[in-house]
Amino acid sequence: MMVDLQGSPDDRKIAIDQVGVTDLKYPIVILDRLHEKQQTVASLTMSVNLPHHFKGTHMSRFIEVLSEHRGEVTMRTLPTVLKQLKAVLEAESARIEVRFPYFLERVAPVSGATAPMDYDCWFIGEVNGGSDDFLLGVRVPVTSLCPCSKAISDYGAHNQRGLVTIEVRGEREAEGHPALIWIEELVAVAETSGSAPVYPLLKRADERHVTMQAYDNPVFVEDMVRNVASKLQSDDRIAWFRVEAVNQESIHNHSAFARIEWKRPSV
Amino acid sequence: MMVDLQGSPDDRKIAIDQVGVTDLKYPIVILDRLHEKQQTVASLTMSVNLPHHFKGTHMSRFIEVLSEHRGEVTMRTLPTVLKQLKAVLEAESARIEVRFPYFLERVAPVSGATAPMDYDCWFIGEVNGGSDDFLLGVRVPVTSLCPCSKAISDYGAHNQRGLVTIEVRGEREAEGHPALIWIEELVAVAETSGSAPVYPLLKRADERHVTMQAYDNPVFVEDMVRNVASKLQSDDRIAWFRVEAVNQESIHNHSAFARIEWKRPSV
Amino acid sequence: MMVDLQGSPDDRKIAIDQVGVTDLKYPIVILDRLHEKQQTVASLTMSVNLPHHFKGTHMSRFIEVLSEHRGEVTMRTLPTVLKQLKAVLEAESARIEVRFPYFLERVAPVSGATAPMDYDCWFIGEVNGGSDDFLLGVRVPVTSLCPCSKAISDYGAHNQRGLVTIEVRGEREAEGHPALIWIEELVAVAETSGSAPVYPLLKRADERHVTMQAYDNPVFVEDMVRNVASKLQSDDRIAWFRVEAVNQESIHNHSAFARIEWKRPSV
Amino acid sequence: MMVDLQGSPDDRKIAIDQVGVTDLKYPIVILDRLHEKQQTVASLTMSVNLPHHFKGTHMSRFIEVLSEHRGEVTMRTLPTVLKQLKAVLEAESARIEVRFPYFLERVAPVSGATAPMDYDCWFIGEVNGGSDDFLLGVRVPVTSLCPCSKAISDYGAHNQRGLVTIEVRGEREAEGHPALIWIEELVAVAETSGSAPVYPLLKRADERHVTMQAYDNPVFVEDMVRNVASKLQSDDRIAWFRVEAVNQESIHNHSAFARIEWKRPSV
Q1: Which residue from D26, D27, D208 is facing B2, i.e. has the nearest CB?
Q2: Which residues of C are less than 8 Å from A116 in CB distance?
Q3: How far apart are CA B210 and CA C156, in angstroms?
Q4: How many angstroms separate the CA atoms of A189 and C191, rounded?
Q5: Where does the entry annotate site (May be catalytically important) (chains A, B, C, D) (predicted)?
Q6: Domain C16-263 architecture
Q7: Which chains share 3+ C-beta pairs under 8 angstroms with C?
Q8: What does the alpha-carbon distance between residue A142 and residue A193 come to, in Å, rounded to a whole number?
Q9: Nearest Cα to A191, choosing from A138, A241, A150, A234?
Q10: D250 touches chain A (CB under 8 A)
Q11: How far apart are CA A154 and CA C207, in angstroms?
């Protein structure tokens, strides 16, 4: 029989917060709001804690647990996967981070032309003893047009691609589960907080529309994060959020950014 | 006179934690342990907070403040830069993140052949009202050889490049400054925690030496973070650290990792 | 009616080789060797030439053509997509580059445990007047163990993850189509050219097996590209190839590489 | 004495085009046009060919040769480094690729405020038997404003950061050296081919200036590459160029691009 070094004792008396696998590519299935399944490709990080008296972790078990569930990695299945990781790896806490491109069919504002557009999304699920955590993140490209540039110039205004990143945690519902928040909802919050949405396919009538929409609706990065914050604060399902906006400035070789983190005050 | 939109009031009553510039490339000078100056190229993020009643920040002032100090960005000059940012931008807090490659001349273990090797490093400095913070980070490549693979095989053992990332905060000294910790010291801590150091230039006698050194000294990612943790805990100057080790597994297409965060208990 | 600037004449007398869209993310379906469809996510570059007398291209048409075919982007459908691009954009040449992760179910060598593993792949299709071109590329991670390190050391040998990149063009068959070469075949060529294959899931018996397999089979980067070259030269379907091997050296912070480009001599 | 495996014979009869080191970080000194030295950090690829009868290359010699010349890697010193690589590695051809950020002090158009701005640059030098080659590349960020968006909208126009990449080879002068072309000259060619230059530091009067400059000067990606091509074709020192422009479209999540490659016709 082969020696099990990982299972042997360790006497340095130092516990490890997280140990596991990272940069693992895996095909996954996501449920979208229209209750259809979307197949995509994820990059995963999976870990457990390691008590101070154990020497090592059995890394292959992460892949085995994932393989059992490969049909679906969603907010609803993550708790089961996490419980299984804890059991199989004899750990007190387990954590999974899943990053993936997610596609939504977008409709051009005037012509009605449609095409899929990609959004970088991520879930982070964690169980630690009896408590658990779930975070949803979305990165949404938007157009941002500079209010200062518009105000001080006789004509025109610099604008650029902005990236709005929103991460949320849901309030706990009666039965203890976090409130369900859809990727589609966060995309809408971000898109209505910039100068204009970004589209995969625009015909000329659409381009005219978004050009003037952006000019009519100038925002600083500061405005974008405040607009997002204001909408999320007024949504009772949101317990916590972090929002960041980054403008890939068209007049500079660096970017401008703003960031707000917020937790709903307990009543 | 041109309108100052950024300076106009805002009534959404939402303060912003950080607003500023990011992905800014800048030539900087770092002091190394031998008290010589090292010229390198940094990527910077600079930000301040924005009280809820101000609409925007004057982004160009970040660059202006940086330009005044361009000769030097070090643990000793950062407090001055941060104070100036607070003053010039009328803010309560300011934060600077500086990431740069840093070179150390390395000597091969047998032949004595020397060449410079690069280490990714970063400083994060922050002032917030009367308090301040300083964090130093270093990423160090090492060789890691798998103890399990060695133990269960008749010969050989898989090994790979591992990356050990250490971030530290220093204990406060009598006059309130954080204790000075050198990049060179953290590199040494990381390199003695893997199976063997990594070198820029090895002749055949050196390659023989490091091959056998690694085989004689197998470590899991778990061992690497514990080895680092143990050394830092016994160094009285360290108030807090976070250490992460990532093995770019030579037998897998994903990586293994481990992570420990620690704060010195108050006496 | 809105002005069509792109369609207006240009008098600089400078033709453009390629004009189009790049960094376009799109969900695609690939046919795999077992004749099943694999859904994945691609990054696309699509372009046409632009004669000197035209001012601009209608970029939205690239997305429209792609959307018509979104069900499938394969070696067999690419010619149709390219022909349509030429027609719709009134161009003489058209080119598509499709990059995507592709998953293969891999079986561990001793335990038989299975899990999917990802391979970066790409197609480049081009039509130019009456002629056409098709290139298939695959990047395959392998284990490489250094022959020099093994030969000069009393025990052990440094090894690391190596990346073998193969690009091929097929010989023309009777009816003019390039010979069909499967991703699965190029993966096999690469994996049998390193010291040992890389797997997504290995149990301890498997780890023992691949550790000793790699030690028994040391290769330089030079050997890896020659091994691949030798196999491809003896495969009559191959008209041209380029192979590159990169070793992420476990004893250095830089990589070693080798590269061969070859064209079958005409008879 | 240790065995020299790399120097042993190989009987597969397959020559290798390039073998060497890549992703090597190294501090370098560049000569700028004002004849001052600029210290920066390079990423290098260095290689030689390998005749079919040799088994391997002595990789450490690349680092040794580089170390001898570390004070300077320029168009004028590269030929010497390449000759030395050929000699030390007993090869017929040698090739060096050096990529580095290069800083130029930029002056804001109205306020005169100055700050350094970074440009990604590269040299590729090659000797092959008696012939040699030298290529200079520069990537320059610019503002590009869409002519179509301006023409079809009642007000405003979408604009964005564009990246103009220029690579050139110089004509041979009387004594056989390629004509000297400065990074500063290619930066100027790129910046005058977009809608407006991009600056590191702009005060409000400057922002007003570049906003209107861009609006007055709309360009498609097609125009940008043609503008660059036209300037380079009329410069007798240029023997060959490749120019690419990529617009990070502010209304899309993908980019638009155009590309021209050109060789001066022999007289």
Answers
A1: D208
A2: 26-27, 70
A3: 10
A4: 47
A5: 146
A6: Roll (3.10)
A7: A, B, D
A8: 9
A9: A138
A10: yes
A11: 69
Neighbours of chain B (3+ CB pairs under 8 A): A, C, D
Identify whether the C-beta of residue D223 lies closer than 8 Å to the C-beta of residue D238. Answer: no
Paired tokens of A13 = 């008396």
| 8 A C-beta contact, residue B246 and residue A22 | yes
- Find tokens 């994996």 and name the residue: C191
| Range from A223-227, C5-9, D102-106 carrying the lowest mean pLDDT | C5-9
Q: Which residue has the higher pLDDT, A261 or C51?
A: A261
Residue carrying the six token digits 């009987």? D11
Determine the Cα–Cα distance for residues A142 and A161; give it in Å rounded to an integer.
6
Indicate yes or no: CB of C101 within 8 angstroms of CB of A70. Answer: no
Q: What share of chain C is helix, strand, coil (3-state, %, to 5)?
A: 25, 40, 35
Would you call B16 and A257 a contact, using CB atoms and an 8 Å cutoff?
no
Q: Which of A157-161, B40-44, C68-72 has the lowest mean pLDDT?
A: C68-72
Whole-model pTM: value is 0.96
Question: Which chain C residues contact residue D50 at CB under 8 A?
Answer: 222, 258
Distance CA B34, CA B104 (A): 11
- D-contacting chains (≥3 CB pairs under 8 Å): A, B, C
List C-alpha distances in Å: D115 to A68, B27, D112: 56, 11, 10
Indicate the DSSP class of residue A193.
T
Per-domain residue ranges for chain C? 16-263
Question: Distance from A118 to chain C by nearest Cα, in Å?
Answer: 6
Please provide the DSSP assignment of C46-70 as one string: EEEEE-TTB----THHHHHHHHHTT
Q: How many other CB atoms are there within 10 angstroms of residue C235's CB atom?
A: 16
Long-range contacts of C32-37 (CB under 8 A, 24+ apart): C32/C102, C32/C104, C32/C183, C32/C184, C33/C182, C33/C183, C33/C184, C37/C72
* Residues of chain B neighbouring A10 (CB-CB closer than 8 A): 222, 226
CA angle A180, A140, A219 (to 5 degrees): 115
Put simply, the chain A residues between 20 and 49 with a CB less than 8 A from any chain B CB are 20-25, 45, 47
Q: How far apart are CA C99 and CA C95, in angstroms?
A: 13
Distances (CA, A) of B263 to A36, B95, B170, B242: 46, 22, 11, 9
Q: What is the average per-residue pLDDT within D179-187?
A: 94
For residue D232, what are the β-bridge partners?
none
In terms of Cα–Cα distance, which of B222, B159, A16, D78 is closest to C144? B159
Token pair, residue D227, equals 């503008």
Tens-digit pLDDT string for chain A (267 aa): 677 777 777 777 899 999 999 999 999 988 777 767 889 999 999 999 998 888 888 999 999 999 888 657 777 788 899 999 999 999 999 999 999 999 999 999 999 999 999 999 999 999 998 899 999 999 999 999 999 999 999 999 999 999 999 999 999 988 888 998 999 999 999 999 999 999 999 999 999 999 999 999 999 999 999 999 999 999 999 999 999 999 999 999 999 999 999 999 986
Rounded distance, CA D253 to CA B123, Å?
33
CB contact, 8 Å: A157 with chain B? Answer: no
Confidence of residue D214 (pLDDT cuts 50, 70, 90): very high
> How close, in Å, is residue B34 to chain A by CA atoms?
33
Residue whose entry in the numeric block shows the structure tokens 């990586």: B255
- The answer to whether the Cα torsion of C35, C36, C40, C45 is positive or negative is positive
Following DSSP, what letter does each residue of A78-144 receive, concatenated?
Answer: HHHHHHHHHHHTT-SEEEEEEEEEEEEEEE-TTT--EEEEEEEEEEEEEEETTEEEEEEEEEEEEEE
